[in-house]
Design a protein that fits this description.
The chain is built from ten helices and no strands. The protein is mainly α.
Length: about 230
């Protein structure tokens, strides 16, 4: 099988497992909705200040809820030593990592696509006229979260406090990607056109995704074997 076929086979396995159990998506979505509800009490949804920080609130919800999905990425393989069997399989560490990333990416996007219209309703936000640009920002920002989160999920899978360690490790690493996603989302949700000054944030997101994807693929074999 080719590299992509192996990776897609692993991603398909994880997605089928999630479709049967639905535990990760349900937990992540419930957590996201609770955060949205709590934030709506903390901030006046109709105020101009809330509209100005709408992008930040949105991506905080995505980042917090995403850790629940990412934390389960390798943890579900601990039962019956399935992780050892995957590592010993003909699939390389890079194929295993990309497959896990693709599965997590799909699950994260599902949660985000459900949360976005709820966020617009709760906070009386303006539905972005350039929705396709906002969706592109979501795709780029979510891939950054997924790559970093999946790598550190593999690194912390055998720790007792992995639920605590994973957010502690990934959030500082995600600051550049979150800054870019927040700035672009805030501008788009305010209905303002993207100027030349905002293009640097797009370049930051693309560069972040490329650099950390290459680094993760190069280092994942060491992380898994270690």
């Amino acid at each position: 099988m080719t590299f992509l076929q192996q990776a897609l086979a692993i991603a398909g396995k994880d997605l089928r497992s999630e479709v049967r159990s639905k535990e990760t998506v349900n937990a992540s979505l419930s957590f996201a909705l609770v955060i949205l509800l709590l934030f709506s009490f903390a901030f006046d949804p109709g105020s101009e200040q809330t509209h100005e920080i709408a992008g930040g609130l949105l991506w905080l919800v995505f980042a917090f809820a995403g850790t629940l999905i990412l934390n389960r990425s390798f943890a579900r393989e601990l039962v019956n030593d399935c992780l050892d069997a995957l590592i010993a399989s003909p699939a390389s560490g890079a194929q295993l990592f990309i497959g896990k990333c693709l599965a997590n990416y799909v699950l994260l996007l599902i949660v985000e696509c459900i949360c976005l219209p709820i966020f617009v309703i709760f906070y009386d936000a303006r539905w972005p006229r350039q929705f396709w640009l906002l969706f592109l920002v979501m795709l780029l920002g979510t891939w950054g979260i997924t790559v970093i989160g999946t790598l550190f999920s593999a690194m912390t899978v055998n720790l007792r406090l992995r639920e605590l360690m994973l957010p502690t490790l990934i959030y500082p690493m995600l600051i550049p990607a979150l800054m870019g996603a927040i700035q672009l989302s805030t501008v788009l949700m305010a209905g303002e056109p993207l100027g030349a000054d905002n293009l640097i944030w797009f370049k930051l997101l693309i560069g972040f995704d490329l650099i950390f994807t290459i680094l993760a693929v190069a280092l994942v074999e060491i992380v898994l074997v270690g």
